[in-house]
Specification:
CATH topology of the largest domain: Chloramphenicol Acetyltransferase
Structural class: alpha+beta
Radius of gyration: 30 Å
Helix content: 25-40%
CATH superfamily of the largest domain: Chloramphenicol acetyltransferase-like domain
Largest sheet: 7 strands, mixed
CATH class of the largest domain: Alpha Beta
Order of helices and strands: EEEEEEEEHHHHEHHEEEEEEHHEEEEHHH
Distance between the termini: 77 Å
Number of domains: 3
Number of helices: 11
Strand content: 15-25%
């Protein structure tokens, strides 16, 4: 009996996918529920599993665009399962492998070279195969050896790179990222405001508590939990930054579903930390690790990447000092973190060296005014420079006195 393996429904509004990789090849034996292929939609990567055990016959090639319901493969369930190991008789009949004779190392006496070149080869322990001879009959001169020493791994006169062009089909995920970025630029009144934050307090807390934090919670104490906490407090104080436009309405969210931009092997993905305002520091860190790991392994589901009310992106991990992030539509704002760099700043009239980070908030000016955007960023700065405020959202003494 033959069983058809069809492209499954992978999410609402998705009508086609790209067959990115066959995990099993045509003619292979597959077990029931074994992964046989990987699909890529405009939002995520999915796997196809074998519905029955049998011999696989593929009906589509890697890179093909398939519609939902198309036949990707057929499994012949009546085909006999191949033997997994040779019988004792087959082992006896198997020809014995002969080991190739070890290649005799080339000595300086075997090399065609001038006496001076040979002396340098012996003294510097240069592999003669890495030297390009310029003399007749392959004779090596002194300058040939010097060229090899000054340009290791490179043949003199040979270009390091060719001039061929290599066209490569754009993936569905990259197409979606491109379309959404252009749409964000063209459909929002995007503006960016900047500030800088002294990271001394946060770095001191991490240095003092990272080992105990890891021991207690099983996860590292990173910067993302501090920034997520700070943003959640600021978003509740400035709700327009956490809002979105829906037709003629502005939708305000009482919760903070924080999207985190992650660079995955196949492109940029933005998974969501749900109800981040209600999570502890360790819960945020665990969620960040979980989502980042799934992104690297192409295991994120559409549900994990859908929604989100505000985005945080960290270009600092790649060394970015300052940038203007693009809004993740239909959201209205995105916070860009950057590289921490020691810089001289003025404190109480004195020049001191501090670990500083530039922050950038890109926002949709249609619903967020300058006062709100700047005040939001100043609030985030205040919370990060005084991490004790993250416990209550304001000064503990003022909270005690209800001021």
């Amino acid at each position: 009996m033959s069983v058809e393996i069809k492209i499954p429904t992978v999410g609402e509004s998705i009508t086609e996918v790209t067959l990115s990789k066959w995990v099993k090849k045509s003619g292979d034996w597959v077990e029931r529920d074994e992964v046989i292929a990987e699909l890529e939609s405009e939002k995520a990567t999915f796997e196809i599993n074998a519905e029955n055990a049998g011999v696989l016959e593929t009906k589509a090639a890697e890179g093909d665009t398939l519609k939902i319901g198309d036949i990707a493969a057929i499994i012949d369930t009546d085909a006999p399962k191949p033997a997994t190991a040779a019988t004792p008789e087959e082992k006896k009949e198997a020809p014995k492998e002969t080991k190739p004779a070890a290649e005799k190392p080339q000595t300086s006496q075997d090399v065609k070279a001038t006496p001076v070149a040979a002396a340098i080869i012996a003294d510097k322990k240069v592999d003669p195969k890495t030297v390009t001879p310029t003399g007749s009959n392959g004779k090596i001169f002194k300058q040939d050896v010097l060229d090899a020493l000054s340009n290791p791994g490179r043949k003199p006169g040979v270009a390091l790179f060719g001039r061929a062009d290599r066209p490569e089909k754009m993936s569905n995920l990259r197409k979606t990222v491109s379309r959404r970025l252009v749409e964000a630029k063209n459909t929002t009144a995007m503006l960016t405001t900047f500030n800088e934050v002294d990271m001394s307090a946060v770095m001191e807390i991490r240095a003092k508590n990272k080992d105990k934090f890891k021991e207690a919670h099983g996860v590292n104490l990173g910067f993302m939990s501090f920034f997520t906490k700070a943003c959640c407090f600021a978003l509740q104080e400035w709700p327009a930054v956490n809002a979105m436009i829906d037709g003629d309405n502005i939708v305000y969210h009482e919760y903070c579903d924080v999207s985190i931009a992650v660079s995955a092997p196949k492109g940029l993905v933005v998974p969501v930390i749900r109800n981040a305002e209600s999570l502890s520091m360790s819960e945020i860190e665990k969620k960040v690790v979980e989502l980042a790991t799934k992104a690297r392994d192409n295991k994120l589901t559409i549900e994990e990447m859908s929604g989100g009310t505000f985005t945080i992106t960290n270009g600092g991990v790649f060394g970015s000092l300052l940038s203007t992030p693009i809004i993740n539509i239909p959201q209205s704002a995105i916070l860009g973190m950057h590289k921490i760099e020691e810089r001289p700043i003025a404190v109480n009239g004195q020049v001191v060296i501090k670990p500083m980070m530039y922050l950038a908030l890109s926002y949709d000016h249609r619903i967020i005014d300058g006062r709100e955007s700047v005040s939001f960023l100043v609030r985030v700065k205040e919370l990060l420079e005084n991490p004790s405020l993250l416990l209550f959202g304001k000064d503990p003494v003022k909270s005690l006195l209800e001021l």
